[in-house]
């Protein structure tokens, strides 16, 4: 069944004349995530399948009928309203946490919808998100799942004091670097297996 989904996705992507990288950019995931979906080694969940259907301009039922339940990998999200930041940061997260399902969002509302449908192990949240701020988003995510680890992302150190009052696990200054992400993972309130070199 995984092979059926993999072949279906690959055929739809090719018919739209998209490369794996181009589809990944539209989905706010890494190219290797798309490659795993197309190899059958990993399956997207229902929310991501819906997003795939929109990106590929196809009936969501075509993808749903080819999919099975997602695997037990941990869900990690990153929310930042700047696409360029997500494009640079998602590969870093995937390098550090190769066994996690890593998904990026530019809209807090989409992240909340995703969190309602999936158990989020770790959320990296920008503090300035347009009309919504990361502090409020953190509180919402923790209401949905109190065991979600939250790490704030910002270019402004002065936000750190407000961030700690929300129950966050950590704080990273932008731009993020591999070694800084690894250091934060050691301090999570609710540790989990993420498959990294220092896991």
**CATH class category name of the largest domain:** Alpha Beta
Gap from first CA to last CA: 31 Å
Q: Return the structural class.
A: alpha/beta
CATH topology of the largest domain: Rossmann fold
Second CATH tier, the architecture of the largest domain: 3-Layer(aba) Sandwich
Describe this structure in words.
The structure is a single chain. By secondary structure, the protein is α/β, with parallel strands linked by helices. The chain has two domains: 2-66, Orthogonal Bundle (434 Repressor (Amino-terminal Domain)); 75-185, Response regulator (Rossmann fold, 3-Layer(aba) Sandwich). It is 48% helix and 16% strand. It contains ten helices and seven strands. The chain has helices at residues 2-15, 20-27, 31-39, 46-55, 60-66, 83-96, 108-117, 134-144, 160-164, 178-185; strands spanning 75-79, 101-105, 120-126, 128-129, 132-133, 149-154, 170-173. The strands form two sheets. Strands 2-1-3-6-7 form a five-stranded parallel β-sheet, with helices on both faces. A two-stranded antiparallel ribbon has the order 4-5. Strand 1 (75-79), helix 6 (83-96) and strand 2 (101-105) form a beta-alpha-beta unit. Helix 2 crosses helix 3 (31-39) and helix 7 (108-117) runs parallel beside helix 8. The chain is elongated, with a radius of gyration of 16 Å.
């Amino acid at each position: 069944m995984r092979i059926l989904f993999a072949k279906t996705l690959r055929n739809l992507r090719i018919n739209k004349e998209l490369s794996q990288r181009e589809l990944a950019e539209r989905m706010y995931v890494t190219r290797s995530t798309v490659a795993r979906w197309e190899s059958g080694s990993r399956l997207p969940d229902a929310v991501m399948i819906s997003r795939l259907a929109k990106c590929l301009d196809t009936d969501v039922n075509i993808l749903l009928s080819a999919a099975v339940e997602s695997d037990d990998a941990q869900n990690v999200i990153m929310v930042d309203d700047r696409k360029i930041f997500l494009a640079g940061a998602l590969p870093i997260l995937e390098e550090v946490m190769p066994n996690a399902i890593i998904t990026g969002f530019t809209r807090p509302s989409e992240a909340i919808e995703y969190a309602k449908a999936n158990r989020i192990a770790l959320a990296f949240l920008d503090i300035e998100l347009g009309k919504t701020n990361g502090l409020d988003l953190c509180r919402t995510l923790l209401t949905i799942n109190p065991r979600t680890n939250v790490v704030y992302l910002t270019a402004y150190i002065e936000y750190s004091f407000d961030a700690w009052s929300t129950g966050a696990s950590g704080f990273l200054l932008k731009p993020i670097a591999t070694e800084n992400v690894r250091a934060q993972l050691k301090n999570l309130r609710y540790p989990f297996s993420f498959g990294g070199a220092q896991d």
